[in-house]
Design goal:
239 residues; alpha/beta; six-stranded mixed β-sheet; 8 helices; 11 strands; binds manganese (II) ion
Length: 239
Amino acid sequence: MPTLFISDLHLAPERPQITRQFLHFTRSTAAGADALYILGDLFEYWVGDDDLEDPLNGTVSAALSALADSGTQVFLMRGNRDVLLGTGFASRCHATLLEDPVMVNLYGTATLLSHGDALCTDDVDYQRFRLYARDPGNQQKFLAQSLEARREQMRGMRAQSEASKQQKTETIMDVAPAAVEALLRNHSYPRLIHGHTHRPARHLHQVEGHACERWVLNDWYETGGYLRCDAAGCTAVLT
Ligand code: MN
C-alpha cells in the first residue's frame, strides 16, 4: 500500500466544498494507504489547541482519528498558517506531530519532508515574521489571550499577509535554489517533498554530483490532490 502526502488545504469555514472533498479523501483514497503525511497548512488559520470545539476543527479531527483507527498512520506537520498546531490536536487526531524538516525512510529511499516556507529565503520580510511567529515567548503571549481575541488578531494578520503578497514578485515568494541545495547537502542528498509555494512540480537538483528529486505538493484551492509514493517512486495525482 502506498504512502500519501498532502499540504496546503487551507481548510476554512468559508470554503465548505474543500472540507467536503478532504473528508471524502480520508474515507476513500487515504483509507487505502499505509500512511498519510499532512505537510502543513491543513488549516487556513489555527488559534490554539483549545479551539477543538469549533465545528470545522471537530469534524477534521474526527475524520483523521477515524482514518488512523482504520489502519492508516497519520502524520501532521505545522505550516505557516497553522504554526500553533500542537500535541493536543495531534492526539485528538490519533496522529503523530512531526518536526520541520524531518527525514523518513520511504520504501528504502531517504526522504526529507518540510512545509517549505523556510526555503523562501529571498522573502526577507516573511522570514522575519516566521522567526517572530515561531518564538515560544511570542506564542505563549498569543495563547494567553481569549479565543475570541486570538481569532480577531488572526483575521488582522491574514488580511495583512494577503495585502503584502500583492506587493511581492512571484520569484521572491518561491523557494530560493541556494536554500534548497544547502538543505539537500546538509541531509546527505535525499529526496525532498514540500508544499507551501502552491507551485506543484517535480524538480531535479544536481548537488555536488548527486541527483536529488524535489516534489512540490499542490494546494487545495481549485482542486485537491496528493503525492502517492511506493517502492517504485512517486506520482502526483490531482483529484
Ligand atoms: Mn504555507
